[in-house]
Design a protein that fits this description.
The structure is a homodimer.
Chain A: E1 2-6, E2 10-16, E3 25-27, E4 30-36, H1 38-48, E5 53-60, H2 61-73, E6 81-83, E7 88-95, E8 100-105, H3 113-127, E9 132-136, H4 147-157, E10 161-165, H5 168-176, E11 181-185, H6 186-193, H7 200-214, E12 217-221, E13 227-231, E14 234-239, H8 251-264, H9 269-284, H10 293-300, E15 304-307
Parallel strand pairs in A: 1-5, 1-9, 2-7, 5-6, 9-10, 10-11, 11-12
Antiparallel strand pairs in A: 2-4, 7-8, 12-13, 13-14, 14-15
Chain lengths: 310, 310
């Protein structure tokens, strides 16, 4: 099975707002509420792919109760640590006519030291029966700066491989703990390496430079251009299918889910990259985070994975 | 006492978002949640002014439970009809640096016929002990088009005077039932009369024309310009204080609350208009709907009420 960790979970609200403008009054066509936070999105796609998964992290208050109930009714197993404060809400204001997505994230609730310790213990327990642990997203106030470093250490000591998908300081600290794999975008890769990462050649070079530090798998995404991946001794460039994006929120998480699902099933790096990219493309076709399995299979044929030889 | 009726209540969320832009990702500085809907805002200001009040209308689901608890802890008495569906949420995205307020309203939940009948019965019961009933805001799906007309009839037959503050079809129907007072803006007055209402002279003429139809009190607001009021035989023009607006959401409701509070205490039309205008001005100084009583007293000195003689 696979464990996903979401330290800064959220109730994601997608508001469909025609002709969205600043300083105006709008009537939303409809509002879609969904359990969210990056790790929860990963768990949703893993579950849709038929992988045995458990979502953990922190939840609290009325939003937390709503979230765990909604996950249950969606058939996504979860085992969260309950905190004293209220789980946050994140908004996406989607103007389908103009193709804009405006996101507003609420600050996360503060987590106490005791709650953090409970989370570490929970990750340790679940890691024992997991092939992979996915650590995704930002850190809420109150957890140590090196939260991901600690979790990487704990999960690995229990035999699980740990993937990290975060940014900023949380990434820098987690990075030092040498996760088994990371997925970063060009900007984050640039920060880690102290250089600009923009072209295809720079993206490939960045993935190779980063893999030298952690010695495992590194994926550097380049938006709609594609992505570079170094898997063991091999380097790949992946070109995604061209799709008409509806809402890109959660597509990076769908990517990681596809990658982990294939890896869990002992597929090759090439196959895993193709499934991951198809999942990401399927995710942007929907109004909310998640995939339709049939769309993934259709898109899979349009993904191009090339081995980079030089 | 005074009864406020909110058929389309809402949890109002005010998101403080620095540098708010379309198609960007923002971290909100903080989110303020408040029981809302126009009648609930009226009740909040009446309560702050020390008037005995009760808020009724429809609430449902998790948002409804949150709302009634929050009203209770704010000391605002309420007696809502519980519906099967979930109370909606309304967003205000407040960019304090650029002085913009972007509002997004969720569609209201559908109300059943049985729930509507319960509401009519509740209004009848409370109207017996009320001097005024304030009917504010839009109609949710499911209630009759002439909902306000029915409530006006029921409340008046129990001895209460009814004020109406709504728009569109709900206003047209309510209007036909001859409420004891209405507050409309220039645009709504223009719709009722079938002409453009823009200048001070047109605003005064509109208030006089409207009062001929219902024979009671009519207030036509003209934004920051001021407002025209016909109270019995007298016509007034009111110039509000100049204030630096933070968030105007709820200022029309604060106005109505000030008017009703003064009327309930048998103050003159002139005094009631001054208090109402000071309440509206105090409301825009805050991030959320409501007033600070001390600000109202300070602003009261700066309101100019002139009798229009011609």
């Amino acid at each position: 099975m696979i464990l996903t960790v979401t330290l800064n979970s959220a109730v994601d609200q997608t508001w469909i707002v025609p002709d969205f403008r600043i300083h105006a009054i709008h009537r939303s066509r409809r509002v879609i509420r969904q359990p969210g936070g990056k790790g929860v999105n990963v768990a949703r796609v893993l579950s849709a792919l038929g992988i045995n998964v458990c979502a953990t992290g922190f939840v609290g208050g009325q939003n937390g109760r709503w979230m765990t109930k909604a996950l249950e009714s969606d058939g996504i197993p979860s085992d969260f640590v309950w905190i004293g404060k209220e789980t946050r809400t994140c908004l996406t204001l989607l103007d389908l006519d103009h193709g804009t997505q405006t996101e507003v994230l609420e600050p996360g609730p503060t987590v106490s030291e005791a709650e953090w310790k409970q989370l570490v213990a929970k990750v340790a327990t679940w890691a024992e029966q997991s092939s992979f642990v996915a650590c995704s997203g930002s850190l809420p106030p109150g957890v140590p700066e090196n939260a991901y470093g600690e979790l990487i250490g704990v999960a690995r000591s229990r035999g699980a491989a740990v993937w990290l998908d975060t940014s900023g300081k949380a990434l820098q600290h987690g990075w030092s703990a040498r996760p088994d794999g990371i997925k970063v975008n060009q900007e984050e890769a640039g920060h880690l390496l102290g250089k600009v990462v923009s072209s295809r050649a720079e993206t490939i070079a960045a993935a190779r430079a980063l893999v030298r530090d952690i010695g495992q798998t590194v994926i550097v995404t380049a938006g709609s251009q594609g992505l570079a991946a170094v898997v063991g001794e091999e380097t790949f460039w992946v070109t995604p299918p061209t799709v008409q994006a509806v809402n890109p929120v959660g597509s990076g998480d769908a990517f990681l889910a596809g990658w982990l699902a294939a890896s869990h099933q002992k597929k090759s790096g090439e196959e895993a990259l193709a499934l991951a990219t198809a999942c990401a493309a399927a995710n942007v076709l929907r109004e909310t985070a998640g995939i339709e399995k049939q769309q993934v299979w259709a898109l899979l044929k349009e993904v191009r994975v090339e081995k980079v030889i030089d």
